[in-house]
Design brief:
Layout (H helix, E strand, L loop, with lengths): L2 H16 L4 H9 L12 E3 L4 H6 L7 E3 L14 E4 L4 E3 L2 H10 L7 E5 L5 H10 L4 E6 L2 H10 L6 E5 L10 E6 L8 H6 E13 L7 E11 L2 E12 L8 H13 L7 E3 L9 E4 L4 E3 L7
Parallel strand pairs: 5-6, 5-8, 6-7, 8-9
Antiparallel strand pairs: 1-2, 3-4, 9-10, 10-11, 11-12, 12-14, 13-14
C-alpha cells in the first residue's frame, strides 16, 4: 500500500478517535510526514505499560518495542514514538495531541506559539493547519531537540524555531499558544501574549520531582479583554516543562486535583484577592476561579 494512502487512513483514525472538528487539522495529519521528524528507523514504540517507567525508574529498554524494520508505515498508528528512550521522552500520541490542537480552534493565517516543540512534528501539523499565511514559533529549551526541530522545519518559511525557556521568552502577540509540557502554573508571558479572543492550552500536572513526568489535566483559556475564560479538557500524563514548575504550586495543585469538581472552573483571575471558597486553585499571581468572568 502506498504511503500517501496509509497517511490518509492514519488521519481518518486520528479524526475518529479525537472527534476532530477542524477539517484543516485533520488534513494536516494526512499531509505531514511523521518519519521526517523522528530520524531513521527502526523506531522504539511505547508499549501500554510504558507509563510505569515514568514513576518506577525502569530501565530505558523497558516499556518500548522496536519496529521490525525502518518502514515508515510503522509510525502511522495512534502510538507514542521514542525521541529519547533513556529519558522516556516521546513524540506524543497523535489522537491526544489532536484533541488539544482541535481545542485551539486554529484558523488560516493565525500566529501560533508552540512551547516545548520537541523535534517539530506537531509544530509542522500546526503550520499546515494555519497555512502559509500563518506564522508559527516553536520554542524548545533542550539544545539538541531545538537543533533537530530547526533542521526538520527548515523547509517551512512560516515557521521559526527558538532555543529558549518557553516560560520566559516573549514571542510577541499570538492568536493561540500551545504548551506541550507539564507545568504547575501558567506563566505571565503566555497569558500576555494572547490577542483578543486568543486561546491557550496548557497541561497542569503534579509530579514527585520537578524533573519527572507528571499527571493532571489540560486547561483551555480564552482571552476576553483582561479576563480569561477557563475550562478543563482532558486528563494528561506528560514530560515536565523545565522552569515552569515549583514545589508550592505543585502542592496546591495536588490538593485542588484531589478535591475534583473540575467542571466548576470558569475563569483564570489575575487580580489580587484573598483565597476564598470560590477559588478552585489559588496560586501566586493567578487563580482558577469558580466565578464566571465579569462582562464589561
Amino acid at each position: 500500500m502506498e504511503l500517501d494512502l496509509i497517511r490518509s487512513f492514519y488521519a481518518e483514525e486520528v479524526r475518529a478517535v479525537a472527534n476532530l472538528q477542524n477539517e484543516a487539522l485533520a488534513e494536516a495529519f494526512a499531509r505531514v510526514r511523521r518519519e521526517d521528524y523522528l530520524g531513521a528507523g527502526p523506531w522504539q514504540i511505547a508499549t501500554p505499560d510504558s507509563w510505569q517507567g515514568m514513576t518506577q525508574g525502569s530501565a530505558a529498554c523497558e516499556g518500548y518495542r522496536t519496529t521490525p524494520d525502518a518502514d515508515p508505515r510503522h509510525l502511522y498508528h495512534n502510538v507514542l514514538v521514542a525521541i529519547d528512550a533513556a529519558r522516556r521522552l516521546n513524540n506524543g500520541q497523535p489522537a491526544s495531541l489532536a484533541v488539544w490542537l482541535d481545542a485551539l480552534e486554529l484558523r488560516r493565517g493565525e500566529r501560533v506559539v508552540h512551547v516545548g516543540c520537541g523535534v517539530g512534528y506537531y509544530t509542522a501539523i500546526i503550520a499546515e493547519a494555519v497555512g502559509p499565511e500563518g506564522r508559527v514559533t516553536g520554542i524548545e529549551l533542550d539544545p539538541g531537540l531545538a537543533a533537530r526541530a530547526r533542521s526538520n522545519l527548515a523547509h517551512l518559511p512560516s515557521v521559526e524555531v527558538v532555543e529558549a525557556d518557553g516560560g520566559v521568552y516573549n514571542p510577541g502577540a499570538a492568536d493561540a499558544v500551545f504548551v506541550n509540557a507539564g507545568v504547575t502554573h501558567p506563566r505571565a508571558v503566555w497569558l500576555e501574549a494572547l490577542s483578543e479572543g486568543g486561546r491557550l492550552i496548557l497541561p497542569l500536572t503534579v509530579a514527585r520531582d520537578p524533573e519527572e513526568s507528571g499527571g493532571g489535566f489540560m486547561l483551555r483559556l480564552v482571552r476576553e479583554g483582561d479576563a480569561y475564560e477557563a475550562r478543563f479538557i482532558s486528563p494528561v500524563a506528560i514530560f515536565p516543562c523545565v522552569g515552569s514548575r515549583d514545589e508550592e504550586s505543585n502542592r496546591r495543585l495536588r490538593e485542588a486535583l484531589m478535591r475534583g469538581n473540575f467542571d466548576a472552573v470558569r475563569q483564570l483571575r489575575r487580580d489580587a484577592h484573598e483565597a476564598a471558597a470560590d477559588c478552585w486553585f489559588h496560586g501566586d499571581g493567578f487563580c482558577l476561579s469558580q466565578l464566571p468572568p465579569a462582562r464589561e
